[in-house]
Amino acid sequence: MGGTRQQILAMMIEKGDGYVSGEEISRKLGLSRTAVWKHIEELRREGYQIEARQRSGYRLVFRPDRILQEEIACHLSTRSFGRVLRTLKTVDSTQKVAHQWAREGAPEGAAVIAEEQTAGRGRLGRSWHSPPGSGIWMSLILRPPIPIARAPQLTLMASVGIARALIDMTHLPVRIKWPNDLLIRDKKVCGILTELRGEQDRVHYAVLGAGINVNIDGEAWPPDLKGKVTSLSAEAGRAFRRSPLIAAMLKELEAIYEKYLEQGFSAVHKEWERLSGILGRPVKVRNASGEVSGIARGLNGDGALLLDTEEGLIPIYSAEIIEGCQSRSF
Amino acid sequence: MGGTRQQILAMMIEKGDGYVSGEEISRKLGLSRTAVWKHIEELRREGYQIEARQRSGYRLVFRPDRILQEEIACHLSTRSFGRVLRTLKTVDSTQKVAHQWAREGAPEGAAVIAEEQTAGRGRLGRSWHSPPGSGIWMSLILRPPIPIARAPQLTLMASVGIARALIDMTHLPVRIKWPNDLLIRDKKVCGILTELRGEQDRVHYAVLGAGINVNIDGEAWPPDLKGKVTSLSAEAGRAFRRSPLIAAMLKELEAIYEKYLEQGFSAVHKEWERLSGILGRPVKVRNASGEVSGIARGLNGDGALLLDTEEGLIPIYSAEIIEGCQSRSF
């Protein structure tokens, strides 16, 4: 959709249930009445229901819940995040597209969002179920001036930003599961994947991927995921429009990212612990060195998970929680 | 150059100053005498001087110091490093080619080596002077199963491997300057650049780049580099063939990489300190947090440089030495 069509859509959205006259559109945008009509037809093909009434003009009757730049732009209040945006109907992986774009010079805050991923990526090479029209599959390009050793902090930072936005927009009890998931009542609603390219002591760029299950019916999950995953709609008992959610996420991500760059990880630390669903709980983690059990106590200054074990407090830099999060409610 | 031509070249190299009969070549490789002759002509076009004598056969009179798979393969004794190899006459950056190749699935140990780079990359986005025919500009693809926080150790590991190979082949006093240079008598002879792509807790692939000044005349440097850089030939007073050097580097890199994966950074630590040119010397380092002065004491278990300062021993994870290495001889 081009800039003119976006402006026409924005004018109709602004009027709410009221009419925008064709004459006003054509005057403000310098278009002929026929050109206005052609744009309206194009919007209808995109799924918008637009009533046209003689002498009153055009009125938006129904806006489809579609991932479109125009819809997102209507809600966006960021400085740079999402201001440069690619929205796609279907893509193999938004991460892959964002990597390519970052290599070609995409600015910080550029985002790729798709209606559907045919080969969505999760952590550690796993696939990510991302059916069409029902989630937010987004990749955000960052260029933080940090050494790569600090890059895992970006995932923790993003967890806080996205959790804040989801809580604000849905009032659901979203909690963070270390290191990269968001849960509602112990079921996964969002996964975060931070990928990056860098050299020994600096990140060239990072691609922050987030997959959020928005409007997915409890029955719609593949058998292996059932009982482990959920969606915002399943938990709230109502559907959510995705564009305001995306705009809210970008807003919170931008805010916490700017704080993180100014103040370092301390800007994330306390709020992460407040939103964490595992502190004080017994967990078992597994990584390349083996398994460790203990009580999750918090994060250290670097972002490692502190486990209270029989041998004392151990910082876990990289691992997976294999027990302790699916067992009971928060 | 194809596999057949490589075999013909290898047969001639094996004979040293002796002759290989055309009949022997055609029998062993199942070629017509005309086909053998065509391959010989092709080798001559590549710069090889080949004497052809009736009844005796072919004899290699002069081998150009060229970066060719055949030349490198003759010397290679690795298990996997350099076994998959791309040699290029000219390229913008071997790092760039290797990244692309790694994304397409190049195996661990695959290497890209060029005669010339038109846009060679150094650390922190700097350019790297890499004139044609006079150096080794190489990028090696690694797929280490380590978290990205440990990736800076790859540079330290590579420093040891390359220093070993250069000392072994040239007997020159090569020393390591933390974090990523090799020096001879306080002048830079080699720079190492480790770039990687990964996610929060694992490296997808790393591209280990090394630029080695082999046969560069002291007068040939651009004015801004004069006095700061040197080459193996300038220090030894003689030229070096690059293919045996490349094979030796790949051999030492493979050996130390395998030890590193088995034993962790302790496999690198002591030898790094032994080869270091800065331990016990006063240095000043600069990074994003500012400048620190102290006596370089060694590395900690993670690979950070330990500086003995007025406030005690400080680990430096990422910085640049701005004073203390160009000041006096080792």
TrEMBL record, chains A, B:
Binding-site list for biotin: 117, 121-123, 188
Reaction(s) this enzyme catalyzes, per UniProt: biotin + L-lysyl-[protein] + ATP = N(6)-biotinyl-L-lysyl-[protein] + AMP + diphosphate + H(+)
Record keywords, A-Z: ATP-binding, Biotin, DNA-binding, Ligase, Nucleotide-binding, Repressor, Transcription, Transcription regulation
Gene3D superfamilies referenced in this protein's UniProt entry, alphabetically: 2.30.30.100, Bira Bifunctional Protein, Domain 2 (3.30.930.10), Winged helix-like DNA-binding domain superfamily/Winged helix DNA-binding domain (1.10.10.10)
GO biological process: protein lipoylation; regulation of DNA-templated transcription
A GO cellular-component term linked to this record: cytoplasm
Coiled-coil regions, chain positions: none
Class of this enzyme: ligase
Entry-linked InterPro entries: aa-tRNA-synth_II/BPL/LPL (IPR045864), ArsR-like_HTH (IPR011991), Bifunct_BirA (IPR030855), Biotin_CoA_COase_ligase (IPR004408), BPL_C (IPR003142), BPL_LPL_catalytic (IPR004143), HTH_11 (IPR013196), Transcriptional_repressor_C (IPR008988)
Annotated BPL/LPL catalytic domain residues: 70-261
One GO MF term attached to the UniProt entry: transferase activity
Enzyme Commission number: 6.3.4.15
DNA-binding region, residues: 22-41
Span of the signal peptide: none
Record-stated family: Belongs to the biotin--protein ligase family.
Entry function: Acts both as a biotin--[acetyl-CoA-carboxylase] ligase and a repressor.
Listed name of the protein: Bifunctional ligase/repressor BirA
Lineage, highest ranks first: Bacteria, Bacillati, Bacillota, Bacilli, Bacillales
